[in-house]
């Protein structure tokens, strides 16, 4: 009986542990497809992992969506984003500090690399990370990404109709470190994401080192993708949110009800950075067009993966 009781207690402990595991993603991206949320992010050393959910709260581990054996890179798999284009899913990701694309027939993978470095023919074999894709109302496709030209800066380039090939003549710098809150350490503007509201483009980004507790999110606006980006004077819109620190590198997405959400990462605690984990909050536009976090708190997603510490 004693052995049976011990076994039962161990099983309960294991189940409880699995229930309180978190989604260990830095740089999270969330795709909503046919009623299912797919989350991708920076974590695995041998590729890009995927989790799925139907309610944003409880997530199921789906293994590696992209394995290093299906790429030419073997390390530093960062900041993936996945889009359904035609009959394929396109994953834009950073590998070994360069940008690549992989495709799959399923959002679960397996994804396999197509072509070479995205920006090689435009900027050479140089540092390029953190790609995000924006599909404009006029049918053009734009990629916003990070180059190290004055610290980490955000650039943009139009992609050809294949959603892969950059059009060199459209390459231009968007923003760099220019505000006091961004210049704590080191010089970083990164992790871009784009939304449009009432004819205005909102370029959201993260500033400072991800290792800093002051890592945070701000935004800049423009009335045209050919125009000048102006940073919001009230930045940051997300930094040291409630009990969280190191909050940033996010994606904005619509949930099943059409509510604007933000998936972002934060430090594991105020004393430990890793593993960074995913959180989900709610965003809103005020009547005068200011983008801000609501005061409704955040979701701390739980996963069924028992080997990730809480």
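^ Assign residues to that structure.
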């Amino acid at each position: 009986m004693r052995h049976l009781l011990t076994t039962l207690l161990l099983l309960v402990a294991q189940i409880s542990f699995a229930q309180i595991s978190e989604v260990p993603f830095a740089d999270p991206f969330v795709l909503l497809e046919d009623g299912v949320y797919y989350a991708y992010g920076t974590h695995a050393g041998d590729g890009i992992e995927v989790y799925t959910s139907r309610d944003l709260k409880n997530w199921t581990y789906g293994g590696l969506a992209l394995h290093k054996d299906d790429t030419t890179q073997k390390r530093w798999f960062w900041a993936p984003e996945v889009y359904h284009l035609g009959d394929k899913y396109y994953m834009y990701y950073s590998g070994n500090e360069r940008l690549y694309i992989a495709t799959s027939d399923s959002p679960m993978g397996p994804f396999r690399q197509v072509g070479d470095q995205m920006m090689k023919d435009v900027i050479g074999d140089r540092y390029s990370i953190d790609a995000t894709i924006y599909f404009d109302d006029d049918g053009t496709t734009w990629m916003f990404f990070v180059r190290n030209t004055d610290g980490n800066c955000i650039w943009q380039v139009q992609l050809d109709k294949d959603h892969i090939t950059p059009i060199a003549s459209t390459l231009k710098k968007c923003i760099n470190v220019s505000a006091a809150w961004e210049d704590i350490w080191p010089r970083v503007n990164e992790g871009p994401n784009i939304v449009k509201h009432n004819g205005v483009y909102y370029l959201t980004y993260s500033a400072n080192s991800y290792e800093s507790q002051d890592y945070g999110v701000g935004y800049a606006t423009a009335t045209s993708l050919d125009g000048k980006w102006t940073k919001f004077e009230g930045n940051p819109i997300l930094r040291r949110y409630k009990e969280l620190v190191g909050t940033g590198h996010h994606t904005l997405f619509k949930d099943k009800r059409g509510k604007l959400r933000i998936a972002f990462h934060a430090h594991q605690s105020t004393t430990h950075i890793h593993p960074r984990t995913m959180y989900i909050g709610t965003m809103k536009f005020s009547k005068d067009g200011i983008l801000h976090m609501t005061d409704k708190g955040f979701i701390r997603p739980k996963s069924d993966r028992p080997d990730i510490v809480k």
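Residues 38 and 52 are 5 Å apart (CA to CA).
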